[in-house]
Amino acid sequence: MINRRRFLQTASASLALSALGAEGLDLIHQKPKRVALIGSGWYGKSDVFRLMQVAPVEVVSVCDVDTRLLAGAADLIQQRQKSGRRPRTFTDYRKLLAAGDHDIVLIGSPDHWHPLQMIAAVEAGADVYVQKPISVDVLEGEAMVAAARRHGRVVQVGTQRKSTPHLVEAKRNIVDAGLLGRVSHVEMCCYYHMRANGNPPVEPVPDHLDYELWTGPAPLRPYDGLPHVRWWRTFMEYGNGIMGDMCVHMLDTARWMLGLGWPKRISSSGGIFVQKEGKSNIADTQTAVFEYEDLTAVWQHRSWGDPPDADYPWAVVLYGDKGTLKASVTRYDFIPRGGGQPIHRDCVFERERYPEDVTEKDIELHAAPATRAHMLDFLAAIANRSRPIADIEQGHISTASCILANVAMELGRSLQYDPATRTIPGDAEATARLARAYRQPWQRPAIS
Questions:
Q1: Could you tell me the CA-to-CA distances from 262 to 148, 289, 297, 319, 399 in Å, in that order?
Q2: pLDDT tens string 316-371
Q3: Could you read off the pLDDT of 293-328 as tens digits, one per residue?
């Protein structure tokens, strides 16, 4: 049973209260949802634990192609469930979905699996929480939006900056209040040394991993260690590099704060300039420009060297004619022009309300309140049959924009995507890159 007092008093939870309403709160209170988790690694478990903290759900199924991860996740969920029940375990998501008894499906698998699994879940009648970026190519994202609309399902994307308490405050009290004045330039960055770049040898696939099924529609690389334990992020076969992993968050934040849609034009340059010694094939250095009417948003990442601002190594900065807003996952600073009072806020932690956070393995403590609020917004949308704050269409725009930046870097020219025709007009070569080839027998999802 949900603790109403804690719900009302928790800062992050209260962000979703107005959308949820008394009727929606009662619905969550009275009718626990049956939940499935596909992808039981680091962030899959984190998402399901945050959901379990804010609503009386029952996690009935867990799926993973690694039987060791699967068993460990099922044990942890059993320990944390109020019912004490152990969820059913599956190694194939299709068999999990065939059960047809899930209200909610959480998808925490690697990026190359998001489209097929999300579409299959909505076809099975579930509402879905899918991690970002939603896809590896642009037309997969179009198919995901179409499927969500066709089946009338709620799909929330894990771009939880929109539910981050201090960033929600910054949008309301700084941006929406007009303290920045006219904003015509945005800078976004990531300078984390997060690019795995080793040279592990090829080795036999361990018995506890179905590598063929893990690979799915992606190219089958020689097996050189557990790819699903973050090693996959360093290969373009499975994702979109640091651009797709980190820029998607900050671009999505800028779009949300400023009410921006599709960019008019996207250009990018970069490559592997410094870290050439390993197997990684994602860019270690990249700059991208997203052009809007009277506004440019510029992204920069380097997985080497030092950040220009040690307090904001992964951030978005909004420049207005009246002031500047620096924002990250841990803080924000408003600096007015011509005097005035600067404003600083740090992120919200909720260790006292959720003491289990402190001992949870690999938890991002600063992100936990944001994910809890994001889950509450998701539940509010389910209760009201409305669109959540990180609706699949918004996740698609942010994801596709980052994918297009990679295509622009590869081709060495700027691109203008037309979402109405799903083409890059006048550029057949770039249009062909909107859809990647699938490894047989997997088939690309249709857009209808």
A1: 20, 13, 12, 20, 11
A2: 999 999 999 999 999 999 999 988 899 999 999 999 999 999 999 989 999 999 99
A3: 999 999 999 999 999 999 999 999 999 999 999 999
SS3 per residue for 171-219: HHHHHCCCCCCCEEEEEEEECCCCCCCCCCCCCCCCCCECHHHHHCCCC
The mean pLDDT value of the chain amounts to 93
Asked if 325 and 180 touch (Cβ cutoff 8 Å), the reply is: yes
- Residue 22's CB is within 10 A of a number of other CB atoms, namely 8
Average pLDDT value for residue range 65-88: 97
Going by DSSP bridges, is the β-strand pair 88-90/58-63 parallel, antiparallel, or unpaired?
Answer: parallel
Cα separation, 243 vs 283, whole angstroms? 8
Non-local (6+) Cβ contacts of 190 within 8 A are 242, 246, 247, 250, 301, 313, 314
Decide if 152 contacts 387 (C-beta within 8 A): no
The H or E element containing residue 297 is strand 295-302
Residue 360 CB coordination number (10 Å): 16
Distance CA 375, CA 365 (A): 16
* Rounded Cα–Cα distance for residues 125 and 116 (Å): 15
Regarding pTM above 0.85, the answer is yes
Helices 138-151/392-411 angle, 10° precision: 170
Tell me which residue of 151, 161, 143, 144 sits closest to 392, measured CA to CA. Answer: 144
* Residue whose structure tokens are 């771009």: 159
Q: Name the E strands within 56-175.
A: 58-63, 88-90, 104-107, 127-130, 155-157
Please report the pLDDT score of residue 22 as a whole number: 44
Query: For residue 328, what are the β-bridge partners?
Result: 315
- Residue 121's SS3 state is helix
- Boundaries of every domain in the chain: 4-160+363-392, 163-196+212-354+396-432
Q: Are residues 111 and 395 in contact, defined by beta-carbon separation less than 8 angstroms?
A: no
Q: Is the CATH number 3.30.360.10 carried by domain 163-196+212-354+396-432? A: yes
DSSP 8-class letter at 279: S
CATH top-level class for 4-160+363-392? alpha beta
Percentage of the chain modeled with pLDDT above 70: 93
pLDDT digits (tens, 9 = 90+) for 201-221: 999 999 999 999 999 999 999
C-alpha to C-alpha distance for 211 and 203, rounded to whole angstroms: 12
29 pLDDT tier (thresholds 50, 70, 90) = low
d(CA 324, CA 175): 10
